[in-house]
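Subject: OLC1v1023193C1 structure
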Amino acid sequence: MTQTIQYRRIHIIFPVALASLLVLGAVRVALDSLKNNELHFLWQFNNVSGNRMRPRILPIVVSEDEIIPDGCNVFEGKWVWDNSSYPLYREESCPYLVKQVTCLKNGRPDSFYQNWRWQPNECKLPRFDALKLLEILRNKRLMFVGDSIQRGMFESMVCLVHSIRFQEFNASIEYYWAPFLVESISDHATNHTVLKRMVKLDSVAKHSKEWEGADILVFESYVWWMHKPQINATFGSPDNVREYNVTTAYKLAMETWANWIETRINPLKQKVFFATMSPTHLW
Ligand SMILES: *[C@@H]1O[C@H](CO)[C@@H](O)[C@H](O)[C@H]1NC(C)=O
Ligand SMILES: *[C@@H]1O[C@H](CO)[C@@H](O)[C@H](O)[C@H]1NC(C)=O
Ligand SMILES: *[C@@H]1O[C@H](CO)[C@@H](O)[C@H](O)[C@H]1NC(C)=O
Ligand SMILES: *[C@@H]1O[C@H](CO)[C@@H](O)[C@H](O)[C@H]1NC(C)=O
Ligand SMILES: *[C@@H]1O[C@H](CO)[C@@H](O)[C@H](O)[C@H]1NC(C)=O
Ligand SMILES: *[C@@H]1O[C@H](CO)[C@@H](O)[C@H](O)[C@H]1NC(C)=O
């Protein structure tokens, strides 16, 4: 952690006695509905900042019928309302959510919004499977980088898996605050200026050194750019602050970011995703 960057990494230990189960192709964690398939039990110990929580037993149901068909374009589809299999976790049962996202606790009267499921046009997605995900992430790091949208994705993923670093899996799920991806004066994860913005369009090294070696990187940056049509920024000389059209500034920043991706990412070993056009979420 430096003064400007808060590198958020939470460690939770998750000892698992499931060696035989792990070789199976498809394993499903059924938290709510149990089927009469093979049942296995998973002992879970959470350890957040040294505060050990009570161990819990999660039932595991094995099923092999839920695999995404090859060639299915999962990015084209629609949201469908599904109250039989969603939500995948309950707000009150996940201790990792920050106040900003605990809508029910903050007084939202309905819970309708929790039941949207993504439905690709070409295939059915298998139900989210925490153990399968951890098997994929064995000895790997998955990192979300960006603003509060990404923080939400990170926290949601952690709630789905309910643990971050697993002893058996050695899997790591991380979050890194960088609202513009490139460096800016708003880079402290919790104490940052919101209205006053200044972006260093050609500088990413301070952040990117923390991204090095992550196996799966999910980037996102949008809302922070859209505050005004212009944004104060530097390019080249750090002393030459001037107003840029946001589209120009965003393009230059993306080029800086993409240049890092091109030179430092090995596409055979690492995966990079980029999400854009996120909604505002201030209310
Ligand atoms: C939990 O965390 C504390 C402090 O980080 C550590 O001393 C302890 O060994 C951990 N417990 C387990 C079960 O990993
Ligand atoms: C799902 O919604 C339907 C219609 O709104 C309702 O009849 C049904 O009881 C709901 N099921 C569950 C499990 O909440
Ligand atoms: C655990 O995972 C990290 C990557 O997150 C890797 O560098 C390390 O070698 C792994 N440890 C073992 C014992 O495989
Ligand atoms: C937040 O940052 C400002 C400017 O760097 C500093 O003056 C202030 O003490 C910080 N506040 C906290 C709570 O750390
Ligand atoms: C740029 O910074 C100057 C000086 O702080 C300020 O007056 C101006 O409003 C800023 N421009 C934008 C687009 O925020
Ligand atoms: C900024 O955008 C305005 C309005 O679209 C345009 O007239 C102007 O030429 C742009 N300036 C630069 C430096 O691109």
